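Methods — Computational structure assignment.
A single polypeptide chain was analysed. Its primary sequence is given first, followed by the predicted tertiary structure written as structure tokens.
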Amino acid sequence: MTVPEHRARAGRAGRRFDLRATTVTFGLAAIALVLLGWVVRMACDAAQRRPVWVFVLVLGAVTAVLLRRRARGRSTAARAALRTTDALAAATATTLDALEEDREAAPAPAPYASGEETTVAVVPAGHEELDPDEFEEAIADLCRRDGCVDVEVVGGAGDLGADVLAVAPDGRRLVIQCKRYSPDHKVGSQDLQRFGGTCFTVHGADVAVLVASTGFTAPAADYAEQCGIVCVDERWLRDWCEGGGPAPWEPLPPERDGAGPLGRASW
């Protein structure tokens, strides 16, 4: 009977015992232990004889370790700060580029209309179609066109007779009341009396002006002339809008033959 031969597996082959290497290893370990014990003994002797030196050496070692860790921390923080600064710079540049693109893409703002184009086109030709609020705005635009500053529309409930306040080019204070009446309704003396009672005493007018879309009655014109109120009727308003007549705060031209006086009461 034949017995099959079993081959030993190479993977299970054990490592050979090396007596020399083991002896050298244990010898080095023993030497290291002896040296370590000698160092510890020397340290103990030094601690007993010179405790201050030992304290200084320990303190120096601890300080060196702390400084090294701190230096590493600073280096890490510096790198993080640099990365943060770079990110902020990139974000700022991107934002500025976007703003510049929006500015270039946005349409240019229309220049301020001084009132010459819009008011001249509306007031003289179709002021009858304006409501009272639009009429006041149109008169304010005329004042701006002719050089007035601090022009303000204040008409409304409780205005005490003032619809437009402004400062004339020569520095005088203008107080203007606007009357938007139908063509067959003239401004009467009662309107002038109410305006005359507040324009100078309440509003401190240097030049008081009543601008009407129609004419003035004779008693109203007489009262205005006595009080020094400038009355601008429909014809004066049209000439003012078209640039052919003076502004209400400007010196009036001399009298015209057969046309009546160009005084402060009527045009």
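Note: Helices lie at 19-49, 51-105, 116-126, 132-145, 189-196, 218-227, 234-242.
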